[in-house]
């Protein structure tokens, strides 16, 4: 952990974190439809060019809430190339937990209790080890690859490091550039990102230089 992160860890109270999360969510929600469309198109383009070089067999993605980057054009394009697409499904029997299930462009989506579109219950489940890349929404990211989510911990639980050996997928944060901050406090259960892509392009993570090329 860097000295800068230590300083943030010491200086931000729970109220400060809630305020930061609220401020960034409001900034994200304030983007116009035109800005959202522009950012989403640029980010999908960056990712599609990367996938053309890397060609993973299975990619985890998401269906966004208002203000989040829309990855629908990317997932449709990847699916048409034969890439399996997996989307998160909240576990209604285990609050705070989720799984990934397959989705294809010609298949319907259902809505969970939060109004989020997800694969319907009969969609086949995808296991963690089957995904080479997972594209993750976020509220904030920092220059070390730390991620702040909505606060419920779904992704941190699902990708807890102790559950993985060599098969952990690459975790790529998808965000608007305005969601970047200098440093975020971390907790032992937080799962760091391997890369971040915004409308401006890929953001290098100097603290984990081996992932900067995302080869």
TrEMBL record:
What SUPFAM superfamilies would the database entry show?
Answer: NagB/RpiA/CoA transferase-like (SSF100950)
EC number(s) on record?
A: 6.3.3.2
Please list the GO terms describing molecular function.
5-formyltetrahydrofolate cyclo-ligase activity; ATP binding; metal ion binding
The record lists ATP as bound by 147-155
Pfam families, sorted = 5-FTHF_cyc-lig
* Any one Gene Ontology BP term: tetrahydrofolate interconversion
Kindly state which keywords UniProt assigns to this record, in alphabetical order.
ATP-binding, Ligase, Magnesium, Metal-binding, Nucleotide-binding
Q: Which reaction does it catalyse?
A: (6S)-5-formyl-5,6,7,8-tetrahydrofolate + ATP = (6R)-5,10-methenyltetrahydrofolate + ADP + phosphate
Identify the InterPro entries for this entry: FTHF_cligase, FTHF_cligase-like_sf, NagB/RpiA_transferase-like
This protein's source sits in the domain of life called Bacteria
Q: Which cofactor does it need?
A: Mg(2+)
Catalytic class of the enzyme: ligase
Please list the residues that bind substrate: 68
User: Which family is this protein grouped under?
Assistant: Belongs to the 5-formyltetrahydrofolate cyclo-ligase family.
UniProt-recorded name of the protein: 5-formyltetrahydrofolate cyclo-ligase
Say which species the protein is native to.
Answer: Thioalkalivibrio versutus
């Amino acid at each position: 952990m860097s000295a800068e992160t230590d300083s943030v860890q010491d200086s931000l109270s729970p109220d400060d974190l809630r305020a930061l999360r609220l401020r960034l969510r409001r900034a994200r929600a304030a983007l116009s439809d035109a800005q959202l469309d522009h950012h989403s198109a640029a980010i999908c383009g960056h990712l599609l060019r990367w996938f053309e070089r890397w060609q993973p067999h299975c990619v985890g993605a998401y269906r966004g809430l208002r203000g989040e980057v829309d990855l629908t054009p990317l997932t449709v394009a990847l699916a048409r190339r034969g890439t399996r697409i997996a989307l998160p499904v909240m576990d209604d029997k285990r609050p705070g937990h989720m799984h990934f299930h397959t989705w294809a462009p010609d298949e319907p989506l259902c809505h969970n209790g939060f109004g989020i579109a997800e694969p319907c219950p009969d969609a086949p489940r995808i296991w963690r080890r089957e995904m080479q890349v997972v594209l993750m929404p976020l509220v904030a990211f920092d220059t070390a690859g730390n991620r702040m989510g909505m606060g419920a911990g779904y992704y941190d639980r699902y990708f807890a490091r102790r559950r993985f050996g060599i098969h952990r997928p690459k975790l790529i944060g998808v965000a608007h550039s305005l969601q970047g901050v200098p440093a975020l406090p971390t907790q032992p259960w937080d799962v760091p990102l391997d890369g971040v892509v915004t409308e401006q392009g890929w953001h290098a993570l100097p603290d984990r230089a081996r992932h900067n090329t995302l080869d």
